[in-house]
Amino acid sequence: MAQREENDRAAGIDYNLHKVALSDADGILHLHGTSVDGSGRVTHTQIRPERDEAMPFLVGIKEIPTRRLDTVFAQQPPADLSYLVKLDVDGVEEQIIAGGQQGGILGTYT
After folding, report:
1. Which helix (H) or strand (E) holds 93?
2. How far apart are CA 99 and CA 88, in angstroms?
3. Strand blocks (E) in 1-110
4. Is the pLDDT of residue 40 over 50?
5. Phi, psi dihedrals of residue 3, rounded to the nearest 5°
6. d(Cα 41, Cα 60) in Å, to the nearest integer?
7. Which residues form a coiled coil (predicted)?
8. 76: which residues sit within 8 A by CB, 6+ positions away?
9. Among 32, 57, 94, 102, which residue carries the largest CB count within 10 Å?
10. pLDDT (tens digit per residue) in 1-36
């Protein structure tokens, strides 16, 4: 179990952790691990739509499922509207939010 999960459980925080990549479409992406320091351990990662076996310093490629917010919440809907969705993303917020517009999960905030 990751340290974050251990800390939250120890603090009694009630949460659901979804281990998927969020997107505006359900599908598969490819996580490319590279070792730029020559150690053979993964030092950097990149997510790409296609496998790239020719990537320099490649250590391995993992398939990552992508899900829309609507898909994730359709599988396990929140009990009421007193919930928080935390996203840890790097610049693709609008794409992820677009994947949550149809199911009524995301409200409009001003």
Report:
1. helix 93-98
2. 15
3. 21-22, 27-34, 44-48, 58-67
4. yes
5. -55, -40
6. 10
7. none
8. 16
9. 32
10. 578 778 888 888 877 777 788 888 999 999 999 999
Residue 109 pLDDT greater than 70, yes or no: no
Residues 6+ apart with CB under 8 A from 27: 65, 66
**CA distance linking residue 21 with residue 10, whole number of Å:** 26
Q: How far apart are CA 101 and CA 82, in angstroms?
A: 18
How many helices (DSSP H) and strands (DSSP E) are in the chain?
3, 4
On whether the pTM is more than 0.90, the answer is no
Tell me phi and psi for residue 21, to 5 degrees: -90, 125
Q: Decide if 110 is inside a domain.
A: no
22: its two tokens? 């969020």
Structural domain contains residue 1:
no
Tally of domains within the chain: 1
12 within a domain of the structure (yes/no): no
Task: Give the chain's end-to-end CA distance (angstroms, integer).
Answer: 37
What range defines the domain where residue 64 resides? 20-98
In a domain, 109, yes or no: no
